C-alpha cells in the first residue's frame, strides 16, 4: 500500500509527536475515522502509526542499535509513501571536522527528528547506508516516472513481492525469495547499490573465494554437469571483447580486489523494467538479476566450453578420433531473460553466489518416505524453513509438479520453497514425526503455501537444495 502524507497537518504532527502510544497517535474523530476506512482504506491511520514509530526515541538514542532502528523506521515510512511524494521525506546528514555526525529527518520541510554529535562508528555507518539507499530509491522513482507502482531496489519489509512471470526461471526466483526472506539480506542488497557520477546504477558483488563458490545443481538434467569457476569470471572481465559484449548488452563490468562491479545504464534499466515476461515484483533487484544473470551465465558458459573444446581438440590431434561436432558451435547467445530457457538449472547457484550464499552441493534426493522424514526434521532443527525467518538459510524443493497424465505420470519440474513442516500428534511417549509440508510457490510468494502429504511428495521425484549464508 502506498499513501500520500500531504493531508497530515502540522497540528496532527504535533499530536503524534506528543502521544504516549501509537493508538493515541492514531486516534481520530468518528467522521475522520469513517472517511479513512471508507475512502482511503486505512491509509491515513497506517501513515500516522509509521510516523509515530519514526518520531520515537529508542533507549539507546545515539548508539548503533538506536540509530539503526530510527533509520529502519525512516525507510519504512518512505516505503509507505507514494513515489511522487517520497522526496518530501528527507534525511539530512552532516559530517563535521571533528568526525562527529548530525542528522535531521524532515517531512515537507517540517522537522520530525534530529540528532547531533554522533560519534559511534556503527551508528555513523547506519546513517551512510540510509543516505545511500535513499539516493538509489529517489533515482529509481524518477526513472519510473513516479508511477504509483514503481519498484524500489529492495522492498525492505516482509511485504516484498515476487510473482513468476512468463519465463521458466522458478529455480532462480525460489532462490531470490529465500534470500530476501532474510531481513539482513535486504539490507545487504541495499548496501551493494549506488548511483555513479554519470547517472548509472552501480551494483557491487563480492566474488572473493570465500564468498563465491558456484556449484552446479542442474535439477533439470541430473546427468548434466558444469563447473562455473571464479577463474572464468576473471577471464571475462580481463577480455576486451567479452567486456565490450556485456557493455553492448547494457552492463559495464570491472573486477577489482574480489569485487565485481556492474554499472547499468538508464536505458538498460528501462528495458528491464518494461520487460513483460519478467517476474512481477516490488523489488527491482529481482528483475535486474533475471536479466544480468542471463547474459553473464552465457558468457561463463562460453568460456567454459572454449576451454573444454581446446582440451578435446588436443585429444583429437593425439588420438586421430573425431570427438567434437564442429558444426554445432558455441551455445546460442539468447538475449538476457530468454537465456533462462537455455541454462535454467544453473541460475540459482549463480544468483545465490552473487548475493553471498553458498549451496548446490548440499543437495539430497531421498529414496523413500523414511528418508524424506529424516531430512525434513534435520532442516527443521537447523531452522531452514521460511517460517523461521531465513537467517540460517533456506531450502527449495525441485519436484514433479504438473498434472498426471493417463498413465498417472507427472512430468513438469518445478521449484518450491520449504515454508513449514506439518507434524502428527503422537501418542504419549512417542516422538512426533512429519506428515506433510507447506511449500511456497514462486508463482506468488504472498500466496498461501501449498500443502503436500509426505506420501504424495515421495512420488514426485523430490530433490532438496540448501543455500546457506557464506
Keywords:
single chain, alpha+beta, SH3 type barrels, six-stranded antiparallel β-sheet, 15 strands, 20% strand
Largest sheet: 6 strands, antiparallel
Using DSSP, what is the number of strands? 15
Radius of gyration: 25 Å
Share in helix: 40-55%
Low-confidence stretches: 210-229, 320-335
Strand order of the largest sheet: 10-15-11-12-13-14
- The global form is globular
In terms of DSSP E residues, the strand content is 15-25%
Number of helices: 15
- What structural category do the secondary elements indicate? alpha+beta
Topology order in helix (H) and strand (E) letters: HHHHHEEEHEHHEEHHEEHEHHEHEEEEHE
Number of domains: 3
- Multimeric state of these chains? single chain
Tell me, rounded to a whole number, the average pLDDT: 77
| Terminus-to-terminus distance | 34 Å
Summarize the structure.
By secondary structure, the protein is α+β, with helices and mostly antiparallel strands. 41% of the residues lie in helices and 20% in strands.
Task: Describe what you observe in this structure.
The protein is of the alpha+beta class and 470 residues long. The chain has 3 domains: 5-143, no CATH class; 162-351, no CATH class; 357-469, SH3 type barrels (Roll). The protein is 41% helix and 20% strand. The protein contains 15 helices and 15 strands. The chain has helices at residues 10-18, 22-26, 30-40, 43-55, 64-80, 121-143, 170-180, 183-191, 230-238, 240-248, 266-274, 284-319, 340-354, 369-381, 454-458, and strands spanning 89-95, 101-107, 110-118, 162-163, 193-195, 201-206, 251-256, 259-264, 280-281, 357-364, 394-400, 413-423, 434-440, 450-453, 463-469. The strands form 4 sheets. A 6-stranded antiparallel sheet has the order 10-15-11-12-13-14. A hairpin with a 2-residue loop joins strand 2 (101-107) and strand 3 (110-118). Helix 4 (43-55) runs antiparallel to helix 5 (64-80) and helix 5 (64-80) packs parallel to helix 6. Residues 210-229 and 320-335 have low confidence and may be disordered.
